[in-house]
Amino acid sequence: MIDLAYPRFFKREFDYEDRAAVTGLLTDAGVDAAGFDAFAAGEGAAELKRHQQEAEQQGVFAVPTFVIDGELFWGQDRIDFVRAKLAA
């Protein structure tokens, strides 16, 4: 999914706040998106808000950000550090 989303996002071809765009991305990835709209309109909105608040409390401010054992790793160039932390 990320392999599809990132290039589109960084080329400004994908608006993650547009529900139809997200549904299209899910479909392109081979995911059955039938329940996505109901979830997004219902309990999904509250769950997203809860996750956003949790991320803000942890210091997350952009993507990709990885939090491992309370330590933040921000940016694609930090993947090697993430791998090393996970391997330790």
Number of helices: 5
Gross morphology: globular
Arithmetic mean pLDDT: 90
In this structure, how is the largest beta sheet organized?
A: 2 strands, antiparallel
SSE series: HHHHEEH
Low-confidence stretches: none
Distance between the termini: 27 Å
Helix content: 55-70%
Helix vs. strand class: mainly alpha
The overall strand count is 2
**Taking Cα atoms only, what radius of gyration do you get, to the nearest Å?**
15 Å
Strand content is 5-15%
Order of strands side by side in the largest beta sheet? 1-2
Written overview of the protein:
The chain is mainly alpha-helical and 88 residues long. It has a domain at 1-41. It contains five helices and two strands, in the order H-H-H-H-E-E-H. The chain has a two-stranded antiparallel ribbon with strand order 1-2. A hairpin with a 2-residue loop joins strand 1 and strand 2. The model has no long low-confidence stretch (mean pLDDT 90).
